[in-house]
Amino acid sequence: MPDKKILLVDDDLDILGILSATLKAKDRTFITASDGVEAVEKVFTEMPDMVLLDVMMPKMNGYQVCRLLKNDKLTWHIPVIMLTARDKDRDRFYGTSVGADDYIVKPFHPQEIRQKVEALLGKAGEVKKACPLSTPVRTNESNLLTKVNSLLDRKLMEMTFLQHMTKAIVSTFDEEKILETILSGVTSYLGYRRVMVFMMEESGAVIERLCTGFPKHGEKAVLDLKDPDAYHRLLIKKEPVVLSGKASIIALPGAKAVEDEDGEQQGIVPIVSREEVRGMVLLERQAGEPPFSEERLSVLSTLASQLGLALDNARLYRKTLHLSITDGLTGLYNARYFYERLEVEMSRARRYKHELTLFMLDLDFFKRYNDTYGHLVGDEALKHLAGILKENTRETDTVARYGGEEFCVLLPETEPEKALVLAERIRKAVEVAGFYTGAGKAPDSLTVSVGVATFTDEILEAEELVRMADKALYCAKESGRNKVCAFS
After folding, report:
1. CB-side neighbour CA atoms (13 Å) of 27
2. What does pTM read for this prediction?
3. Which domains does the chain have, with CATH numbers?
């Protein structure tokens, strides 16, 4: 078995001697470097099994060296331990951000450094078996500078792209706009034409929400993860996967597998928010498009995390908005939202000369019903009435609980005659409905009185139209209840 080659990097010769003596073993050889540039040169020419790297060094510091190594396809797999005499919490953050596998604070304990080196050498051996052998390459300070500049340019582009995308997706609470922004960014920046966003349903199904580049299909696609390892990595470990040379994993009517020089390749990145997988972004690589490198998957993962947070915020906003405009008991709109819609619809009716009708209805003798059966049964009656109103109105109508047992129905682009017909239909539906009176008890009957009012150009305030409908409702009650009356 060949010796394990360990590169020790420090500008202090005493530290290099201590490290060599501490880690000495029969199956190990040590090479050393005293500055960052020399360290990178020796990594590329010697291809060591591990690097122990000081943070503060001449020419290039340890963070710069580590970032360069971890972003090069020849050296990304080599484990790096950072050595620091500075504040360890801050160095832990910086070291992790540039890809360091572990860190040790000076002065270090011999047993601690031995244990960490042993553990990482074992992992490095496993990675080396799974990866093709890296061939040492000749390098010098000039092409190292080129590598550094290229890396900085790439990181700057990534950061700019992610900042732009984050700013765009957090600027709206519209889920469709958020997803469209993501699709546009992935296709324009990362260069993949086929992108599909899936969201997790409560049932556990992963259903298509939006896609671009795929053949047109009449039904929503369903993500079908046949590979148990891919399923585990995506949903449990929450990390991206790349599937190559496999049958299509999406149940997509009319879609055909795309073959290129590498075989069909699909990259899937989980959308994670608050430690839960909310959905997945699938990219299908076509001929001529860039491979799914670690770097690209990392950018996608960061973007998917931002997407998850943005979607969660959009849903929270929508839920909060819904709670603020709905009645908690019936699920209908509340009086505040009703007045907002009334103002809007009156403005539209005045501008476009549309008809607009409002009717108000009230449960007859509801106090007596409450006194007889109790308030909980009375609440069930109000919910039953709300269901009847929803069943008999359009999506464009505004149905609201005005207060107590009184309800409003706002009917845009509806002439008075049709409104009267609808009001009468609702009155009859309530009259024949059986209302709950308690477990094991026979249902009882209730009736409603309805007042109808129509908007005219002479009406200047929303409250005026409401007063007209209320007067018509009072007329219906005074004339015997269980009736429909129009304001005149």
Report:
1. 6
2. 0.61
3. 4-139 (3.40.50.2300), 150-321 (3.30.450.40), 335-486 (3.30.70.270)
